From TrEMBL:
Protein name: FAD-dependent monooxygenase
Keywords: FAD, Flavoprotein, Monooxygenase, Oxidoreductase
Domain of life: Bacteria
GO MF entries: monooxygenase activity
All residue ranges annotated as the FAD-binding domain in the record: 5-367
Record has Flavoprotein as a keyword: yes
InterPro entries: FAD-bd, FAD/NAD-bd_sf, RIFMO-like
Amino acid sequence: MPACETDVLVVGAGPAGLTASALLAAQGVRAVTITKYPGTAHSPRAHITNQRTMEVFRDLGIEDAVRDVAVPNELMGDNVWATSFAGQELARLKTWGSGTARHADYAAASPSAMCNIPQHILEPVLRAGAERHGADLRFSTELVRISQTPDAVHAVVLDRETGAEQEIVARYVIGADGGRSTVADQLGFEFDGESGLGRAANVWLEADLARYTAHRPGTLYWMCQPGNDYWVGSGTFICVKPWTEWVMLFMYDPAEGAPDLSPDAVRERASTIIGDPDVEVRIKAVSEWQINHLVARSYRRGRVFLAGDAAHRHPPANGLGTNTSVQDAFNLAWKLASVVRGEAGEALLDTYDAERQPVGKQVVDRAMRSVEDMRPISQAFGFRPGQSTEEGWRSLAGLAADTPEGQARRAELRAAVELQNYQFNAHGVELGQRYASAAVASDGAPWPIPARDAELYYQATTHPGARLPHAWLEHAGTPVSTVDITGHGRFTVLTGIGGQDWLDAAGKLATEFGLDLAARQIGLGCDYTDPLGDWERVREISERGCLLVRPDHHVAWRSAGLADDPAGVLREVLRQVLAR
Ligand code: FDA
C-alpha cells in the first residue's frame, strides 16, 4: 500500500474541514484534506452565517466572495409565524439584529454583517479560497481506518473512484468528518448528551412566493396549522434564494411513525403550507436528519482533534452549526501551524480542547433549549396534542377574540415570541465567546460584570481571553477595523501614543522567538488613527498600555500601562502562551 506523509491530515471538507484546510494552507503548513464525496455539499443544509464567522472569512480574504453569492443581511430580518403563506399572519419578530432596538448593537460590534448563505453555495467559495492558497484537497477519498501511536497517526484511505487504498501518515489529524465521524468512533472519543431526540426532514423545493414574502423579507417562515404541534409546527420555510427557492423543514416524532416523504406527499404538504393552489411547487431533493444533543467530552486524543459536527451535534436553532464549525477551525489552525513550525510547544495544542469544548457545550445546550422554547408559541396559538383540526382552528380563532381570555392569550403569545430573542438575537452567544486556558495570560483583573443579559448582548472587553473588540480606525485615509490589523496567522501587539517601548520590545522578541509578531500604534498622528474615539472607548487600557492579540483575534494578555521592562514581561507572556 503506497504511503503519503504529511504534517496535518484534515478528514472532511465541510465548513470545518475546508476552513481548516484554507487556514493551514495560508500559513504554509503541509496538509492534506480528504472527503469521501466527489464534491462539496450538494444541498442547502446550514445557512445562517454570523458576524464572527464572517470575520474568519474576512481574515481568509474571502468575505467579499461570500457576500457576492449570499442573501444579504437586509433580506434576513423578518421571522414570520402564520397559518400559511397566503393565510393569516400570527406573529413577527425582527431577527439577527435587524430590529431598530438591536441594529446598533450588531453594527457596532463587528466590521462584518451576518448573511444567509446555504451550505452548497458557501462551500465552493471556501474551496476556492483554500485552493488559492495551494491547499491539497482530495475528493472521493474516504477514511476507512485510523489509529495512532505516540509518534504519528496512521490513516488508511480509499479512493472511491479506483478502489485503491493508500496509507497517510500524519503528525496530527483534524477529524472534521461530521456528525457520523469515523475519526471519533474509531479513536474512542467519548460524548456527553443524548442522540435521536426526534427526527427532521429537509425538503428542498422551488416555489415563487414573492407576493407573500417580499414585503416581509426574512430567512425563516414558520407555518403553524392545527394538528401539527410537534416542535416547530407544520413546516418552516428557509429561504435559499429570495423568493423562489426554499428548504421546507419539519420535525416528527419517530415513535408516531415516519411521515410519507415521497415527492407527491411532500409537494402536497408544501402546497398546504403555502395555501395558494396557483403556486407551482417543484421538489428538488428530500433528506432526513436527527435531533442530537451531544458534545465530545474532550476534543483531543493524542495527536487527533475533533472539529465541527464531529465534536458537537445539535439542532439548527440559533443557526450555530456551520458557525461553530468554522470557529473551531479558526482556533485550531494557528495552534497547529505554530507547533508544526516549531514556534510553540506541544502543550499549546491542549488549549484547543480547553477553549473550544466549553463553547461546544454551551452551543449544544443553547440550541436544544431554543428548540424547547418554541413550544410556548404553539401553546399560545391554542394547539394541543390530540385535538381535532376543527378544535384547533376554533382555539386559534380565540386568539383574536375581544375578551379577557383573548387578551391574555395575546399577551402569552407576545411573551412566547419575545423568548425567541434567545434564538434569533442572541448576540452574546454569537460573538461573546471567551477563553480561559494556558494560551491566555491573566492580568489579574476580574471579567467585567455584564451590563445586560450575557446571552442576548455582546459586551466588548479586552480582558485576556476575549475576542478583540472591533473599532473602526483609519489608515492612510481608509477605514480599517481592529480585526483587520490583527489575525492573518500572526500575533499582534497593539499600543498607543507613548507605547514606543512596546513596539521596540515586539521587534526584539519577534527575532528572539523567530515569530511573526506585528506591532501597531493607534492614536493621533500614528499609523492608525481613532477618529471617532471608538477604540478609546473599548480598549480598557491607557494609551501607553499594550494588548497582545493572538492570530484568532483573541486577547492573549494586556497591560494597563507601560511596564518597567516591556521586553521582559512580554517575553514571559509569550513563553506561557506558546508553551515554550
Ligand atoms: P459536515 O457534515 O458539513 O462535513 C463533513 C465532511 O466530512 C464532508 O466533507 C464529508 O464528505 C466528510 N466525511 C465524512 N466521513 C468521512 C470519511 N469517512 N472519510 C472522508 N471524509 C468523510 N445545520 C443548520 O444549522 N441548519 C440546517 O438546516 C441544517 N440542515 C442540515 C441538513 C442535513 C441533511 C445535514 C446533513 C446537516 C444539516 N445541518 C444543518 C448541519 C450542518 O450542515 C452542520 O452543522 C455543518 O455542516 C457542520 O460542518 P462540518 O464541517 O463539521 O461537517
